[in-house]
């Protein structure tokens, strides 16, 4: 991200963000409510464009190309930069079709059974659902639904996976499964996660960006660096105050 500003109508929601994401690492975005965390993560795959009145200035470079250039297809961007949302949102179809549908509309011509199995294995869900692939996905538990959504994202072979508070609707056991899964997936994918849970950020991420709001209520990035440094030796007093619970 280079000098990224995001506006909703006349309101500037995010101000002057410069952020370089490390490949095949997990980057956490933390900060108090209303500081623009979700807005920032949605910049990476042009999801903010779906909100009336939203606009972005600056550049978001992916392989050296600004994904906001007029000749860039946002659908292709979203295939390469997948997203897992706060609330599990499987399609009202079978488990199998949840995985196969996205791959099919993206032109996948290989062995679909193999792709479904591989995606579910990568999402640590295969052993739980392999005998029920034609069961409605909505019958799964919340944690299973979220892992299915991760499998569905993986199936179209993205390079980056965005996760917007993926565990906020889950119980602690399901949350730990998702966290373990993230560490596994980081071997093959670049992961960016928004989380309001600082313990989660400390557990799973390699890098952390701390955001807060300025006097105009715009989200600003205060500090970015290796997670261990941000949590143990923050350079900015505002970061330290947030992490130690003095505000936020």
UniProtKB/TrEMBL annotation:
<dbReference type="InterPro" id="IPR003593">
    <property type="entry name" value="AAA+_ATPase"/>
</dbReference>
<dbReference type="InterPro" id="IPR017871">
    <property type="entry name" value="ABC_transporter-like_CS"/>
</dbReference>
<dbReference type="InterPro" id="IPR003439">
    <property type="entry name" value="ABC_transporter-like_ATP-bd"/>
</dbReference>
<protein>
    <submittedName>
        <fullName>Phosphate ABC transporter ATP-binding protein PstB</fullName>
    </submittedName>
</protein>
<keyword id="KW-0547">Nucleotide-binding</keyword>
<feature type="domain" description="ABC transporter">
    <location>
        <begin position="1"/>
        <end position="243"/>
    </location>
</feature>
<dbReference type="InterPro" id="IPR027417">
    <property type="entry name" value="P-loop_NTPase"/>
</dbReference>
<keyword id="KW-0067">ATP-binding</keyword>
<dbReference type="Pfam" id="PF00005">
    <property type="entry name" value="ABC_tran"/>
</dbReference>
<dbReference type="InterPro" id="IPR005670">
    <property type="entry name" value="PstB-like"/>
</dbReference>
<keyword id="KW-0813">Transport</keyword>
<dbReference type="GO" id="GO:0005524">
    <property type="term" value="F:ATP binding"/>
</dbReference>
């Amino acid at each position: 991200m280079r000098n990224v500003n995001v506006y909703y109508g006349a309101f500037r929601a995010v101000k002057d963000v410069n952020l370089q994401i490390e490949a095949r690492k997990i980057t956490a975005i933390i900060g108090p409510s209303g500081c623009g965390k979700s807005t920032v993560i949605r910049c990476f795959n042009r999801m903010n464009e779906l909100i009336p009145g939203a606009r972005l200035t600056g550049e978001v470079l992916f392989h050296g190309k600004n994904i906001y250039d007029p000749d860039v297809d946002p659908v292709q961007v979203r295939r390469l930069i997948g997203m897992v949302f706060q609330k599990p949102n499987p399609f009202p179809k079978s488990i199998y079709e949840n995985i196969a549908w996205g791959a099919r509309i993206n032109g996948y011509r290989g062995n679909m059974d193999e792709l479904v199995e591989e995606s579910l294995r990568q999402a640590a869900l295969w052993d739980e659902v392999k005998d029920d692939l034609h069961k409605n996905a909505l019958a799964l538990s919340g944690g299973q639904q979220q892992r299915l959504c991760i499998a569905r994202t993986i199936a179209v072979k993205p390079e980056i996976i965005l996760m917007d508070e993926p565990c906020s609707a889950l119980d602690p056991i399901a949350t730990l499964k998702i966290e373990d899964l993230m560490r596994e997936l980081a071997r093959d994918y670049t992961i960016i996660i928004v989380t309001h849970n600082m313990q989660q950020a400390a557990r799973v991420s390699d890098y952390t960006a701390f955001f807060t709001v300025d006097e105009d209520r715009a989200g600003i990035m205060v500090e970015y660096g290796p997670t261990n440094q941000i949590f143990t030796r923050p350079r900015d007093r505002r970061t330290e105050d947030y992490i130690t619970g003095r505000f936020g």
